[in-house]
Amino acid sequence: MSGADLRHITTWLFDLDNTLYPVESGFMRDIERRITDFVVKVTGLDRDEAFKLQKVYLKDHGLSLTGLMLHHGVDPADFHAMFHDLSLESLARDPELIAALERLPGRRLIFTNADDVHARRVLERLALDHLFDEVFHIGSFDYVPKPDPLAFARMNAAHGIDPAETAFFEDSERNLAPAHELGMTTVLVGPQAPASIAPFIDYKTDKLAPFLKDARLREAA
Questions:
Q1: Could you give the 3-state DSSP secondary structure of residue 67?
Q2: Which domains does the chain possess?
Q3: How many CB atoms lie within 10 A of CB 65?
Q4: Do strands 134-136 and 216-217 pair parallel, antiparallel, or not at all (unpaired)?
Q5: Residues 6+ apart with CB under 8 A from 173
C-alpha cells in the first residue's frame, strides 16, 4: 500500500513557519530581516556582524531570541511585537492542504517558537485557524524554545500528549530529535527533507499536503 502508515496517530502536532506554508513563499526571509534589524538596534553592530551573531544565537540556543534575552536583557514581548505588523501578502491559502488536514482523525495542535499573535495571524491568513484545537506558542512554554527537551515536556504536560500516538511535523531537522527520543513519529517537511539522513526522522516529504492526503489513517470511531 502507498502512503505513510499513520494509523496509530491520534494527536497531530505541527510546527508553523515553513511547515504549514512553503519555504518558497519567502515569508521567513522577511522575518529574518526584521530579526537582523532588531539585533543591530540592540547591539549597535553593523548589519553583517549582527546577522552573524543572530545565527550564532540560533545555533547555540535554538532561537535567536534566547541569546538576546540571555546576553542583552531583551524583553521577549518587545522582540515579538516587531512581527505583528508584518505583511502576510506572500502567504496564500492552499485548498489541498486544508482538505488534507480536515481528514486527520484526532487532535491537531500547533507547536511553535513564535508567539501567539504571530501564530494566529498566519493561521488566519492560511485559513487554517479553525482546524487546530490549540496553539502551544513560545510564551506557553516560558520562552524555552524547541529543540530544548523542556519545551517538549511542558507541551506534553499541558496537553496530555501520548508520544506513541503523536506525529510531529517540522521543517527543522534538529527539532525532531527530542520528539523521536520521546517516541513520537517524526516527519521532516520541506525541500531539504528528501536529502536528510538523520536516523531520528521517520518520514520525509518536500510537500506536506500530498503526504497527508496519501497517508493511511485510523478509521473514525
A1: helix
A2: 5-21+93-217 (3.40.50.1000), 27-81 (no CATH)
A3: 24
A4: unpaired
A5: 188, 192, 196, 198, 201
Cell of 73: 536583557
Using omega within 30 degrees of 0 as the cis cutoff, is the peptide bond preceding 147 cis?
yes
DSSP sequence for 130-173: GG-SEEE-TTTTTT--TT-HHHHHHHHHHHT--GGGEEEEES-H
Whether the CB-CB separation of 13 and 109 falls below 8 Å is answered with yes
Global pTM reads 0.94
Q: Are 32 and 58 in contact (CB under 8 A)?
A: no
CB atoms within 10 A of CB 85: 8
Closest CA to 22 of 217, 193, 162, 184: 193
CB atoms within 10 A of CB 219: 7
Q: Name 199's Cβ contacts closer than 8 Å, sequence gap at least 6.
A: none
Give the helix/strand (H/E) hosting 192: none
**What tens-digit pLDDT sequence spans the chain (221 residues)?**
579 999 999 999 999 999 999 999 999 999 999 999 999 999 999 999 999 999 999 999 989 999 999 999 999 999 999 999 999 999 999 999 999 999 999 999 999 999 999 999 999 999 999 999 999 999 998 999 999 999 999 999 999 999 999 999 999 999 999 999 999 999 999 999 999 999 999 999 999 999 999 999 998 54
